[in-house]
Specification:
single chain, 399 residues, 2 domains, two-stranded antiparallel sheet, 14 helices, 19% strand
Length: 399
């Protein structure tokens, strides 16, 4: 009975001549706009986090096993057939382990000289998402992949040759054939990194066939949790080797993501406050327009809880309509962006070509539930405070 009476008076309030329909439409518009922005911003933020983190993990690996050495010292070695390392492949968390070698060098082309960082590997399957031209199948000795940035700068194409010179006391030279051109979107990598076979760098270093500079470990999907996984794997790493996370080796990229997440979170908090303030103000104005009716109800003995219920029903109606519209708008915009990538980005600044969208129902549910109950709580508190003196004063003023 109480619920029905509150609903009945809220409908009368909606149809009351004194109640401005404009305020109701304005409230729905503000909630719809705010909800859609919250959902879209969260989907984009999570998309950035996921897409860039996935690219980093694919290109560099989640974790590295390297010798204890000084920074950027690429002359330390690890045996390829080390049983202690090979045993890590049997762990349930590990997808695969790939050896690598880094080496600084100079690349001579027809247009000039370029300082480069060579990376030697045996497995290039992770590069298929970054490949622009050429192929990745079975890179042989004296074959190389170069970035699109270097290719454009020196007018290089697939099939062209470049000469590599090591930077050391006794320089070694190798002529390498370009088999492919890649683009990661990471400016520092695309400006300097060349990819070649492990054998090529073993020869350039004068190392035996059974040595590498380190290992990259790729973890299985959805298993990466920094501290937990790090501690678990550290138990299996030999005492004379160290385990490094890509969050340490690629700290600048992850710091950039953290700054973006912080800025976006502050914006969303401010936007939520604006939504709540606006809808609360609208309800207060509607109370003022119907103050005489509320005063009469108060005078005949209607309790404050009944009158609060009237405006709560009205608030719930506005919130439901606004959030429904907001979810619909957000879904359509996110769907078209996810499907057609119609909003593009400058890859040099954002590391990806288009605005990414991450579909995660959990975030959408949490945002909708959190926003709804937060607005409802603030409005309820405001109504309780106003009902302490508002109706009686307004009926006195009317008389």
């Amino acid at each position: 009975m109480i619920v029905y009476s509150a609903y009945f008076f809220s409908k009368k309030l909606q149809n009351n001549a004194y109640t401005s329909a404009f305020l109701a439409r304005l409230g729905i518009f503000i909630i719809a706009l705010g909800t859609s922005i919250l959902l879209i911003a969260t989907s984009v933020l999570q998309g950035f986090q996921k897409k860039i983190t996935d690219n980093i993990n694919h290109f560099f690996g989640h974790l590295h096993i390297v010798p204890y050495t000084t920074l950027h010292d690429f002359n330390q070695t690890i045996p390829l057939q080390d049983n202690r390392i090979q045993g890590l492949k049997n762990l349930a968390l590990i997808s695969h382990v790939r050896p690598y070698i880094y080496k600084t060098a100079l690349a001579y082309t027809k247009k000039g000289v370029e300082g480069v960082l060579l990376k030697g590997m045996n497995d290039f399957s992770h590069m298929k998402n970054f490949l622009c031209k050429g192929h990745l199948k079975n890179l042989k000795q004296h074959e190389v992949l170069i970035s699109q940035t270097i290719a454009k700068k020196h007018s290089l194409h697939v099939g062209d040759k470049i000469t590599i010179c090591t930077i050391e006391a006794h320089n070694r030279y190798r002529k390498l054939t370009i088999q492919g051109i890649y683009l990661t979107g990471f400016k520092t990598m695309d400006q300097q990194m060349l990819l070649c076979s492990l054998d090529t760098l073993q020869q350039l270093n004068g190392w035996p066939k059974n040595t590498a500079g380190g290992y990259e470990m790729i973890l299985k999907k959805n298993t990466f949790n920094d501290q937990k996984i790090y501690r678990q794997l550290l138990m299996h790493v030999p005492f004379d080797l160290q385990l490094k996370s890509n969050r340490h080796t690629q700290a600048a990229l992850f710091d950039w993501l953290t700054i973006m997440k912080t800025n976006t979170s502050l914006f969303l908090i401010f936007l939520t406050l604006v939504i709540i303030t606006s809808i609360t103000s609208i309800m207060v104005i509607q109370m003022a327009e119907c103050s005489y009716m509320l005063g009469v109800l108060k005078a005949v003995g209607i309790r404050n809880t009944r009158m609060i219920g009237i405006f709560l029903w009205r608030s719930i109606s506005l919130m439901a309509q606004g959030m429904l519209w907001g979810n619909g708008i957000a879904f359509l915009l996110c769907f078209f962006q996810y499907q057609y990538h119609w909003i593009t980005l400058q890859e040099a600044h954002y590391y990806i070509k288009y605005l990414p969208i991450d579909w995660d129902v959990r975030y959408w549910l949490w945002i909708n539930m959190g926003l709804f109950f937060l607005m409802l709580s603030i409005i309820t508190i405001s109504l309780h405070w106003l009902m302490r003196f508002f109706p009686i004063r307004m009926i006195q003023h009317k008389n």
